[in-house]
């Protein structure tokens, strides 16, 4: 057990540095702030700066990283942050902003977001997805409004407000903007976190993107599911379409698909019964089938093929045993006794450098979690039960290093529209998020003072 005096100073440092996402929650929950809907041309405001960032098309397959980086650098200069650009893959830079703390020897805190976004089908949107139109009800329509250009700009706006109040952090704060998250992060966050430059940051805790909540609770994520791409292939003797014989390629593949479907159903039944969330089970979903002998009019219908293949999207929660899953695939889903072969493309880490599941503890064993939770609850805020994210973020590369990381995007009372048509975020929700991450309208640090009394 730590000595009381040491514990006090430890929690003092922790509580001060999480100021960026803890302040003013009480005011946010007591009332909905009013906001005059300004035209984008009316001035340089948090909303117009957000709109300007959204208008930069960073959607794949050709994200405009240079324009996005130039804009972010201009914002960092106006705020007074240290800035540098790193490039670990050609044409895919990482932007890093730093706010030095008064105790630089302490482990730093990293706030991460990604530059890129998924494509958008313009014809299926009510407004051009890169126009960032703001409606009279405050909805700002744009690709990336929720995922996740919002937090990238909210970080900067929170710093701007804190600096205006002459706030100085104790720990050094870093803010990273990485490329290619939407296509796996292999050329972005994966290489960044493996670099000497990242090691030199001495990161002790990190925050990354979370997800919106239609309700009034703030969602927080302590883990992601790990994606596997599974290909199974069956070989067999070709034959006439009228023949019945054992171990044809299609027969073997269909047996495997049936077995996998039963496994999928067993996992889904657990979710339907309310015994687990969707993100807490292994999901198996077919994504393609490939078989048959092509012909000019389609396929040869009187010939059984010698090969058949299927692809599946698997998502493993950190509680799953990857070795047991590989064994199941080899012995049940694609056994060689049925002339089956398989290939697993593991898209990212599933264990950290010490062999532990990629999970950040959300109990009292993790002092960072304790401070985060206190920051919310001490002001009467509603915090949802910590979750495993059903999909994947760049936080997995940070957790792989054994660094605790939470996914948190301050979006309540907002439908989940990431990757959807007509993605939007209301201006009032966006402004609330800045306050949650930074400082309230009265410029007070009440929630931190409450925490210090407890620490």
From TrEMBL:
Pfam families: M20_dimer, Peptidase_M20. Zn(2+) 2 binds at residues 147, 182, 419. GO terms for biological process: amino acid metabolic process. Residues 1-31 form the signal peptide. Zn(2+) 1 binds at residues 114, 147, 209. Keywords: Metal-binding, Signal, Zinc. It comes from the Eukaryota. One of its GO terms (molecular function) is aminoacylase activity. GO terms for cellular component: cytoplasm. Residues 228-332 form the Peptidase M20 dimerisation domain. The active site is at residues 116, 181. Its cofactor is Zn(2+). CDD domains: M20_AcylaseI_like. Binds 2 Zn(2+) ions per subunit. Gene3D superfamilies: 1.10.150.900, 3.30.70.360, Zn peptidases. PANTHER family: AMINOACYLASE-1, PUTATIVE-RELATED. This is Peptidase M20 dimerisation domain-containing protein.
């Amino acid at each position: 057990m730590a000595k009381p005096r040491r514990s006090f100073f430890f929690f003092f440092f922790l509580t001060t540095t999480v100021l960026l996402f803890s302040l003013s929650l009480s005011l946010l929950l007591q009332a909905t702030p009013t906001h005059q809907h300004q035209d984008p041309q009316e001035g340089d405001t948090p909303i117009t700066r957000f709109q300007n960032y959204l208008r930069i098309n960073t959607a794949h397959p050709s994200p405009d990283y240079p324009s996005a980086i130039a804009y972010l650098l201009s914002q960092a200069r106006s705020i007074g942050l240290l800035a540098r650009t790193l490039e670990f893959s050609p044409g895919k830079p990482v932007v890093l902003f730093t706010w030095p703390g008064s105790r630089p020897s302490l482990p730093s805190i990293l706030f991460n977001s990604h530059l890129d976004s998924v494509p958008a089908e313009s014809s299926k949107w009510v407004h051009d997805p890169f126009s960032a139109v703001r409606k009279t009800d405050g909805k700002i329509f744009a690709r990336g409004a929720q995922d996740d250009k919002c937090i990238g700009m909210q970080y900067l706006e929170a710093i701007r407000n804190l600096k205006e109040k002459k706030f100085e952090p104790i720990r050094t704060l870093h803010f990273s903007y990485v490329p290619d998250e939407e296509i796996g992060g292999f050329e972005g966050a994966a290489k960044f976190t493996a670099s000497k430059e990242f090691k030199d940051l001495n990161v002790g805790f990190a925050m990354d993107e979370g997800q919106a909540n239609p309700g009034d609770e703030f969602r927080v994520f302590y883990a992601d599911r790990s994606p596997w791409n599974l290909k199974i292939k069956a070989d067999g003797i070709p034959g006439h379409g009228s023949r019945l014989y054992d171990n044809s390629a299609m027969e073997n593949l269909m047996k495997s698909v049936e077995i996998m479907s039963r496994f999928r159903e067993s996992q889904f039944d657990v979710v339907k019964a309310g015994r687990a969330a969707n993100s807490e089970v292994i999901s198996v979903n077919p994504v393609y089938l490939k078989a048959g002998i092509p012909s000019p009019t389609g396929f040869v219908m009187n010939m059984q093929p010698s090969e058949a293949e299927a692809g599946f999207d698997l998502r493993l929660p950190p509680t799953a045993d990857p070795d047991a899953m590989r064994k199941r695939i080899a012995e049940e889903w694609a056994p060689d006794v049925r002339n089956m072969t398989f290939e697993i493309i593991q898209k990212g880490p599933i264990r950290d450098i010490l062999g532990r599941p990629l999970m950040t503890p959300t109990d009292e064993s993790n002092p960072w979690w304790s401070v985060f939770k206190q920051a919310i609850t001490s002001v009467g805020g509603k915090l949802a039960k910590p979750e495993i994210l059903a999909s994947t973020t760049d936080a997995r590369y940070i957790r792989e290093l054994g660094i605790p990381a939470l996914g948190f995007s301050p979006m309540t009372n907002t439908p989940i529209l990431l990757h959807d048509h007509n993605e939007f975020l209301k201006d009032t929700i966006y402004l609330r998020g800045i306050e949650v991450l930074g400082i309230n309208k009265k410029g007070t640090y009440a929630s931190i003072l409450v925490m210090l009394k407890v620490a």
